Amino acid sequence: MKTSSIRLGVDIGGTFTDVVLEVDGASFSTKVLTTYIAPENAIIDGMQQVCVKADVTPADIGQIIHGTTLATNALIERRGAKTALITTEGFRDVIEMRTESRFEQYDLNLNIPEPLLPRQCRYTVPGRIDATGAELMPLTEADIAPVVEAIAEAGYDSVAIGLIHSYLNDTHEKLVRDVLVKRLPDVMISLSSEVSPQMREYERFNTVVANAYIKPLMKSYLGRLEGRLRDEGVGCNIFLMHSGGGIISLENAAEFPVRLVESGPAGGAVFAANIAARYGLDKVLSFDMGGTTAKICLIKDQTPKTSRVFEVARTYRFKKGSGMPISIPVIDMVEIGAGGGSLAHVDAMRQIRVGPESAGSEPGPACYGRGGDKPAVTDADLVLGKLDPDNFAGGSIKLETSASEAALSAVLGDVLDMDAATSAFGLAEVVDENMANAARVHAVENGEDLSEYTMIAFGGAAPLHAGRLCEKLGVERLLVPPGAGVGSAIGFLRAPFSFEANRSVYMKLSDFDADKIKALLSDLKAEATGFVRNCDAESDILSEFKVYMRYTGQGWEIPIALTEAQAMNPDAATFEARFVEDYTKLFGRAVTGMDIEITVWSVNATTPPEKVVKIAPANPIGAAPIHGSRSLFDPATANFTQASVVLREDMIEGAEVTGPAAITEDETTIIVPSSRKAIRQPDGCIDITTKKGA
Are 548 and 432 in the same domain? Predict the structure, then answer.
């Protein structure tokens, strides 16, 4: 058997670690509880399980692609390394002052999120680079030495270096790094000019701080993982999914772990885009709900929307500006603390609140019987009949309904004078409404109407909640693909090798310099291509060019895509025409008489995308065989009702299921609400539509 035909995708989530093995087109998967102290243990356990299922050995695996939410969770939960920031004198408080804008204009008691590093962990050095990259004030080793000594005495594990305008001239940052290396050779160092060479100091400083904050954790983990895999006989290359939807090498991931912040969710978006391409869908809402978080992403024309800045851990009603900005190429999505393990409580106003705290896998929801005594979303799902206590995770975990009822009553019911079932209903409605609100806000921010979209749901918990979410959002069609419970891991195996290089160089069209632009874009192309060649030495590499433009005086820019011919033969008139075209599409009209400026230049190098085969709709053949029935809570009527239970493996092409129903499989359960009906499509997708529409 050719090892190149055997590929392993691994996604570490906050509760479960998903493992998918593909062998000559056949897929074998499993879910195992994430082991927090040593996450690599769960990967080894899952790998061994799927190898047994496929009758291969770990040594037969030809490629491993890994994504994880460990970086994201470390930032959200503030459990990174002891980190210091070295910045320019006068800019010590940039990451605390933020942009000085109020993300909620009329809240008099607004709480601004705390910076990742407190003030005592932030140090300054003299020296100054101006906005053109010229040195205004020199910086010497003697200037840096006292700061390095203070850092040595404090015992920091990692240091972020972010100096003013270093994206144009990085000599001062490199000097600070050299002095640090001489005095503290074991301390990990991150330079903002390497991590995020872009304008806007707050975003750049925050990004380099985040990179430094999680670098020791991620570097240690990736090193241990590589060692454990080698001990198991795995000799293939190991790659990491990055936040932009592509794959990078293990070495690059260890150096720039902030690019992994959305690696798991990015795999899910790639998975959903692949499904959208198969069905020819141009407007898709990707819904990924796991054990700790829920992720929502808009996919247009079978391509996930991307951005240069992503906010981690929005704290205020999903409002833009209330999170921690990370300035890296990323698939644009909204992420909230709403997963199967998200915990509920009653606030001071006697309202049920869910998340962002999660029970994770240790101890897990109360029903796991591992010591948890607070109600989680999974506990509510169990009490409401969405889950079978004897067949959760393929029967590997037996759920205790009585423990869920006790936790719901103790934390919610006794406080609000409700029984366990009503408490579960309240918890489920709150978490579903939280996710629906997040989707609405994300759509409004992007000027989209969700009623025109098809939802694609995946992740262990998403199929349990997606039907209700569609009812709340007015979405008429829902697709749950095969392997939905491990969708992100499958997405890793569909992703291309890619890397996006970008740089801030300010230029007005009235000062257009074609030679400078061609040289800049050529350098960025070489940089991005070099990263991809580290992963794939043979495949063709495509280059995608993008510039970020705005009218002079505006506060933000829009991305403008260029063909390679336009990028390598730059012309001011072409750049202006492309900007006016896209600006008019977004805002309805162009602005005459104003100069246009470019702030950021970007080149994404990528291997060609995987080819997909279009799916022809299945012809209905009648009802799928009923395996049984169970009591299921119907939120539309606020009562329990008898629902059909159907085994997904028993549904052949064209088989139909009418709600209320539960379609079960080892890794998840699809709840079909009473307002919907489902049909199995030729590729195994469960296609759920409204009864009226059907």
Answer: no
236 and 205 in one domain?
no
Q: Which residues of the chain have pLDDT under 70?
A: 1-4, 313-319, 361, 693-694
Q: Is 510 inside any structural domain?
A: yes
How far does CA 116 lie from the centroid of its chain? 20
**328 and 208 belong to one structural domain:** no
Q: Is 178 found in the same domain as 33?
A: no
Domain match, 591 and 564 both: yes
Answer whether residue 1 is part of any domain: no
Tens of pLDDT along 388-425? 898 887 777 788 999 999 999 999 999 999 999 999 99
* Residue at 418 is within a domain: yes
Report how many domains make up the chain. Answer: 5
Helix, strand, coil share of the chain (percent; to 5) = 35, 30, 35
Q: What is the CATH number of the domain that holds 42?
A: 3.30.420.40
Rounded CA separation 402/383 (Å): 9
The pair of three-digit structure tokens given for residue 171, joined into one six-digit string: 């000599």
The answer to whether residues 203 and 100 belong to one domain is yes
Q: Taking every pair of C-alpha atoms in the chain, what is the biggest distance, in angstroms?
A: 81
How many of the other CB atoms lie within 10 Å of CB of 189?
Answer: 19
CB contact burial 117-148 (16+ within 10 A = b; e otherwise): beeebbbebebbbeeeeeeeeebeeebbeebb
C-alpha distances out from residue 657 to 184, 285, 472, 605, 621, Å: 64, 23, 21, 44, 11
Residue 615 forms part of a structural domain:
no
Instruction: Assess whether 204 and 330 both reside in one domain.
Output: no
The position carrying tokens 């000019």 is: 193
Distance, in Å, from the CA atom of 339 to the CA atom of 356, rounded to the nearest integer, reads 9
pTM, two decimal places: 0.84
What is the tens place of the pLDDT at every residue in 99-142? 877 777 777 777 788 899 999 999 999 999 999 999 999 999 99
Residue by residue, what is the 3-state secondary structure of 437-452?
HHHHHHHHHCCCCHHH
Q: Are 356 and 313 a contacting pair, CB within 8 Å?
A: yes
Tell me which residue range forms the domain holding 447: 264-493
- Find, among 74, 493, 442, 73, the residue nearest to 290 by Cα: 73
Cα distance between residue 657 and residue 651, in whole Å = 9
| Residue ranges with strand state E in 153-212 | 158-162, 188-191
How deeply is 108 buried, as exposed, middle or buried, from its count of CB atoms within 10 A (0-12, 13-18, 19+)?
exposed
Residues 454 and 518 in one domain: no
Q: Which two tokens stand for residue 180?
A: 């640090």
CATH number, residue 560 = 3.30.1490
